[in-house]
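worker-3 :: picked SMC-Scp complex subunit ScpB
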Amino acid sequence: MSEPTLIERAIEALLFAAAEPLSVEDLARRLPEGADVPWGLEALRQRSQGRGVELVQVAGRWRFQTAQDLAYLMTEEREEPRRLSKAAQETLAIIAYHQPVTRAEIEAVRGVQASKGTLDVLLELGLVRMRGRRRTPGRPVTYGTTDLFLEHYGLPSLGDLPGMAEMKAAGLLGLDLPPGFEVPDPSRPPLEEEDVLDFESAADDSPEFVQDYVGEEEER
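worker-3 :: tokens ->
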């Protein structure tokens, strides 16, 4: 058996047995030194195209998953997903496209006060995380999406966020858009980090932030 074929088979075995998607680095650590992991992944991806189980990249990592056109066959074996409220859908979409974003900035886009309960739900589900604090008076907490968000919506990276129509189809937005909501130019870098402090660097002079995301009933 040739070396390339052996590497391809080894990658296939690792991905099949893995409990979560694996990165190129994860695979390289388990394979012989010098193994051409990108080649093996591309060979597997091409070989699996059009089959019932396909190799896909999500959040910069790789996994096997059921082909999208056959997903309906899995409905009886899959848990019913927790449905997000309209407020949570809008808030998640705003965070995804404008991150890192503060509560005040979310409110400015939606045109209504952001419910602490809504952010609490998104944090609990692991779709959103607290990124750091803005370099402005009060050091407001900023929010961003997580790798789980990318995995849930099948996105390789934030640069692959869909347009407005695709967002509605994916359940990221309801039919009625919040006032002032816009999808930014996809060519714009999705993250602007220069004005955000991580929590460690802001810890000395930052107030408690628990009240920023818990305690209120979710908007109806």
